[in-house]
Amino acid sequence: MIVAFSVSPLGVGEDVGEYVADAVRVVRESGLPHRTDAMFTSVEGEWDEVMDVVKRAVAAVEARSARVSLVLKADIRPGVTDGLTSKVATVERYLADGDAP
């Protein structure tokens, strides 16, 4: 399963990078495959371990902010591993081949 999520504090002003870094630190320390971009952090693993990481990432932000926003999207495909890499590689392969289906 891959979960893409975004967690940020509310009511702390526009600069939330320090809070987001607390959440990303939890993900990185989890040991699970992950990728962070400008809008989301994606984590790959089994349901319970991924959801535990998300919960702890939210708690890290919540520890410093009374209100937290969480956006989460999940791709639940039992038996699939290395989706973080393989899904992107598939798109890149199609792009390299031009417009071919």
TrEMBL record:
- A single Gene Ontology CC term: cytosol
Q: Which domain of life is it from?
A: Bacteria
Membrane-spanning regions, if any?
Answer: none
Using the record's annotation, list all stretches that form the Thiamine-binding protein domain. 3-92
Q: Which Pfam families match?
A: Thiamine_BP
Output the InterPro entries linked to this UniProt entry: MTH1187/YkoF-like, Thiamine_BP, UPF0045_domain
Q: Which family does it belong to?
A: Belongs to the UPF0045 family.
Protein name per Swiss-Prot or TrEMBL: MTH1187 family thiamine-binding protein
Q: Which organism is it from?
A: Streptomyces sioyaensis
Q: Source taxonomy lineage?
A: Bacteria, Bacillati, Actinomycetota, Actinomycetes, Kitasatosporales
